[in-house]
């Protein structure tokens, strides 16, 4: 029987009209599924369901999500990311690869945690490089350019964490198969989103973090220069380090919706 399925124009363009029509007719669509965003059960016969097409270098995977979690969309990822999602690889930490504003030798570390702001818990990612960041095309003599480069991208400098940062439009956090895969930025000339940084291995987040992300439909990203935060074993210590970095003028932040939202 027909499913309550959403197939966006961009997904249809990738998979073709024939396959899209088969999906809408229920021929190739599972009735029940695990949402690729929140990982809770869904039923395309009972609730609106989105088709989400992940495209790697050589492989494409069609997944399903609650329409309230993600709209139907195409997401460009690396082949390693895509294979990792298929295998549902676990990991409790991650190093993040280079981005357009980070030289190739730079390695970014990321920590996930819940941050209490105005009495409410928000899902957060804290990004800190392992070494000073030079501006691309320079020899680094001007010092660490990590924060200025991020401010140029639209991140907001913080002196205190007393309210959620502003949304950075066009950017999003890719949470798939219940794990963090990448932060996406607008593609060149308004094309498909591309990875600003991406996990070498998908980051396993806690159920409470994932629940908060789906509640708010966004993630707060904080970034600080090397030596500002460190690897904190507890969320209260992480918050203390964030507060100290903000007070010292060494913290920028942005709110990012879940991919495509």
- Total discrete domains: 2
The string of secondary-structure elements, in order, is EHHEEEEEHEEEHEEEEHEHE
Radius of gyration: 19 Å
Morphology: globular
N-end to C-end Cα span: 29 Å
Tally of alpha and pi helices? 6
Give the strand order, joined by hyphens, for the main sheet.
7-8-9-14-15-10
Assign the structural class, choosing from mainly alpha, mainly beta, alpha/beta, alpha+beta, or little secondary structure.
Answer: alpha+beta
- Oligomeric grouping of the chains: single chain
* Strand element count: 15
Low-confidence parts lasting 5 or more residues at pLDDT below 50? 86-105
> Overall pLDDT, averaged?
79
Beta-strand residue percentage: 25-35%
Main beta-sheet strand count, sense and barrel state: 6 strands, mixed
Give the % helix: 10-25%
Biased composition (Polar residues): 29-39
Region (Disordered): 25-44
Written account of the structure:
Residues 29-39 have a biased composition (Polar residues). Residues 25-44 are annotated as: Disordered. By secondary structure, the chain is an alpha+beta fold. The chain has helices spanning 9-15, 17-24, 79-87, 146-153, 207-216, 235-247; strands spanning 5-6, 32-34, 41-43, 49-55, 60-66, 73-76, 94-96, 108-117, 120-129, 156-157, 172-176, 179-185, 194-204, 218-223, 252-257. Strands 7-8-9-14-15-10 form a six-stranded mixed beta sheet, with helices on both faces. Strands 1, 4, 5 and 6 form a four-stranded mixed beta sheet that branches. Strands 11-12-13 form a three-stranded antiparallel beta sheet, covered by helices on one side. Helix 1 packs across helix 2 (17-24). The longest helix has 13 residues, at 235-247. It is globular and about 60 Å long.
